[in-house]
Amino acid sequence: MLGYSATGRTSNAFASMPFKAAVRAVPSGPSWASWVEGLGDWQQNSAASATDTSHFTETYGGQGGIDATWQNLASADDALVLGVVASWMTSRVTYDGSPTSIRLSGPGVGLYGTYLRGNFSADLAFKTDFLGLDEDFAGLSPNASINATNYGVSGNTQYKIMTGTASFVEPTGGFSYTRTTFGNGAAALDLKDASTLRLQAGFRLGTSMTVGATAVEPTLKVLAYDNVIAEGSSIAADAPGAAIVPTDEGKVRGELDPAVNFDFGNGYSSNLSGQVRFGDELVGGAVRAQFRKQW
Asked: Rounded to an integer, what distance in angstroms lies between the CA atom of residue 49 and that of residue 265?
């Protein structure tokens, strides 16, 4: 359950497009933009303890948002982006050697913001997902359903260091926190509210080029991360819900995030990105495609 919560929260995905603040003498804005994004995520977790079970999680979804940008608020090279996001996702967990499966699906809403000043930037996002959790025991016992709500907040800071005319390296660090709560009937399904706190650090490499009339920016982010808090959502280790959350607290893992930004001019831009996660008892990946229009 909380494995899903961490998916896609390694950075502010809601404001991931490159931003170049124009230098102006007086504050300006807001200028408005809208965007849509599709995503897919897959992850294989091996058994992390004697009470855990190897399982595979696949997640698909879409989200979209509207944001406003203000420039030159405190200096000639700063900007503030504030926006709202809405989403829908579905996630299915299957277990090795068992016909049991779990499906999570539902909408989400959130707020996000990014502040930029010179080569420094910081982002913060809040999001709540209202999910239905359906357990399918393949006839071994009655199926069950319950509501689950994920409350999440994530933040990152970055500083871009130019290493050439068009190339850069950008150290980054951040966190993501998720609190999952369950509706009525949780105790009967052996479920309890739980939290996950993830810390991460790394760097991003990139360069800029022009292909025809399109500005292209390929980048690669390299991260190490650790779930310093990963509470289990099962009341008893030997109950049916025991394998919903992998016991991965304290395991340092790695992540590679390749991406390409395209600026087509006239306010149109897009972003294609991938993700590879790896480490002790885990391998996973994701793909995203985003399209953005700014007025």
From this structure: 52
